[in-house]
Request: fold
Amino acid sequence: MFPYINVFGKQIPTYGLCALTGIAFSALLVWVLIRKRKDYSKVHILNIPLFATIGAFFGAHILYALTRPDVLWYILGHMDDLTSSFQRALELLGALFGGMVFYGGLIGGLVSGMLCCKKLKLDFSFYADIYAPAIPLFHAFGRIGCFLAGCCYGIESHFGLMYHNEMYPDASGVTRLPIQLIEAGLNLLLVLVLVLLNKKKLKNGTLLSVYLIVYPIIRFVDEFFRGDAVRGLWFGLSTSQWISMILFVTGVVMLLKRYIIPSWKDRYATRVDIGVIPPGYYYNQYSGVLTPEQAKNILYGEVEKGEELPSDKSRSAEA
Reply:
């Protein structure tokens, strides 16, 4: 394992390096997918992930704390120990919130992104589809980081790699299944599926729905091949497996609402063709797509009004 690399005499965590690389490639992927589109706001395309990242950060740490009930109960039963000194408080809170769980970050990011869109009066399902392919891409790099750091390791196996990590001495010295790399590979396949779907004219929220169906299946299965026991077990299943089932059902319901259930399927607009401005909207070269109200405040650049589409095509956004 390579938890750190030496760069100019400084020890840099490989997990953090992989995470930053994943962010860079995810941002590049989003840019490639939307660079020719005119149906989104260039301002909000940056604002939404900013708020989502904040929610993901807190969500990942909170869910990690929920998987450590022993530490939580100790703190609640020994508040005097928590307040005995600042150093001791940092140690206990570090033990409780010091790790991160992907599902906590995913849920926190989705909730904060949804609240941001609601505040800005934007269609969350529309923007969620823009970012959907980037989620498994970032996660793939994160799992590579897990492999290098030595966490989230697999079960003992005749097929795999000899595990050596000073942070996990009980897990070292045996051959373990590289489940982190397997999940990274499956995430990359999921990226390919979502990118291909992105080229089709689908109902808003479809890509997010597909992600919420496919990834939970991947995660539910690979949890059986995990060798670390810090994830928490509830009635024989890990915390992530329970969350996987909830997200899978959520994804299925989202798809049913868009394509099957009559009272819901017409509420979700179909994306317009690339380069088309939604009817009733305006496009500014600097700000992107604008509502009529927003266009009144634009004082620079040319503003182009969207043409009315044929009646058989749906609008890509609601005013």
DSSP finds 13 helices and nine strands in the chain. Residues 308-319 have pLDDT under 50 and may be disordered. The chain has two domains: 4-276, 277-319.
